[in-house]
Amino acid sequence: MSSTDNDLSSTGPRLRDQPPGRVDFTMMFLTHDAFLRDLRRLEAAVAAGRSGERAVRNGWETIKEELHIHHVGEDEAIWPPLREALAASTDLAVRAELGVLDLMEEEHGRIDPLQTRVDAAFAAGGEELELAVKEFATAMASHMEHEEDQALPLVEQHLGPEGWARYHQFMIGTNGPDRVGAYLAWLLDDVPEATLEKVLGMLPPPVRAAYRQKFEPEYRAVPRWTAPTA
Ligand SMILES: [Fe+2]
């Protein structure tokens, strides 16, 4: 994944060089990279035998919560209108792209039981947990790669900026301001300065202020991933 941000002191999502097009996929790419960041943290914590720590359990709960919201948004507000647009085309090559949406739905369905397996494996710990986490992380990474390489170009071509704006509106309307604020704080966890500035610059001033005064402090108040410093 290429990056336009070279602050190597941060581990969080970086701005990517986007493919040319009319749709701004910044938030989607950052969300995927935030999942990858947390999956790396999960794998490291489990490998270090820290799965019993509250901070690690909290981190895992956050991954599940963000993933649920992310997949509901795609399943309800991206894939259906995209499926409709592809199916309505008289061009057979365009209709053949419906297979990409079948793949997206199939992969979402495959990730759910892998997540349940990680949940169950937390009780067992040890090798079973390491294996379950590895399988979950691998499935997530390959799904996000397929989505970026195959599905987002279809969004660009067939939904365009208007369709993408409807998806963002769905996410805000369905989840409400406080949940969106919690998402932003998770997204921006340990991002390089350029990423932070760009995302905050995309937000309306009252949301930006709420991020600084409420959402970020609330996110920080819950211990996640970091080992306690005695
Ligand atoms: Fe996604």
Automatic annotation (TrEMBL):
Indicate the segments annotated as coiled coil, or none if absent. none
Q: Where is this region: Disordered?
A: 1-20
Q: Which InterPro entries match?
A: Hemerythrin-like
The residue ranges of the Hemerythrin-like domain are 28-154
Q: Where is the composition biased (Polar residues)?
A: 1-12
- Which named protein is this? Hemerythrin-like domain-containing protein
